[in-house]
Amino acid sequence: MQKLIPEWPLLTSIIAVVAGYSLEHLWLGNGQLLAGLVTVALVLIIIGAAMRVANHAEVLAEKVGDPYGTMILTLSAVLVEVMILIIMMNNEHSPTLGRDTIYSAVMLDMNGIIGLAALLGGFKHGEQVYNDDSSKSYVVMILTAMGVTMVLPRMLPETNWVEFSIFNIAAMVVLYGVFLRMQTGPHSYFFAYNYPDKRKPKQKKLDQQGGAAGAEPHHQAPANLWWSIIVLIVGVVLTGLLAEVMSTGMSVSTKGLPLPPLFVAVVVALISASPEILTALRAALANRMQSVINIALGASLSTVVLTVPVIELISLIQGERIVMALDPLQMTMVGLTLIVAAINLNDGETNAIEGMTHFVLFATFVMLAVMGV
Question: Which DSSP helix (H) or strand (E) runs through 129?
Answer without folding.
Answer: strand 128-129
